[in-house]
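Handout, page 2. Input:
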Amino acid sequence: MSEAPAVVVDLQLAIGESEFDGKPLPASHQLEAWVAAALLAAAEDGALERDASDAAAPYELTVRLVEEAESQGLNRDYRGKDSPTNVLSFPHEPLDLDDFALPPELAARFAEEGDDDSLPLAGMPEGDLDAGEEEGLDGHNSDDVMLASDAMSEADEADVSEAASSGFSTSGAASSGLGSAATETAAEQALDEQALDEQRFLGDLIISVHVVAREAREQGKSLENHFAHMLVHGTLHLLGYDHIEDDEAERMEALERHVLAGLGIADPYRKENH
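Output:
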């Protein structure tokens, strides 16, 4: 991946203010540019793989800007830390359909019933089918009733004759085979598209704007630059980077420095920048 990938951010505003310290909050296009820069660096680092044939499809993520109370609640519930924080990352987890599978005994029952040709038709008591055929489904003698199948047969014969005179083939076997193959192909394409959708959606970033603005003031940084750092940091978390172990932290921080330098932002981890 030599070019920054396309990114679509679903920006959710759950805060009352639109400005902090007289500065507006970053717009969606800024967030998308910062995320794209992080994705490009991750790809160069070998942490992001993508099929070249799908290069034009955008990555997607949700960025939710929240009050400190919401950040604190999520941080407490998911990380066990009862305090607000600058950014929380929730990587996307594909839905596992096995979690919704029927219990084995129920699945076996449905399979058995599905193979039983002796089951009565819906709405018709057992043993009444023969009587219904003799008398007609509406209670009249069957001789007085023209069944729909008979009408369809006559119409089909007329269509066949017309098709034959026009030179069209009426081979049902061939059309049935093509239809089956087309159905299988459509199903495979649907599964492929679902897999690509799963790959494109990165997850959710929850940013406490008040915490970010406060940190920017305390560290003498612009709100925009610190926001960019939080977006890059959070995006790398979505891709699996972490900083629990020392070697992991070094790798992640080095990548953050690289991305931010490309955006014209000074090293956020230098002491004079804190």
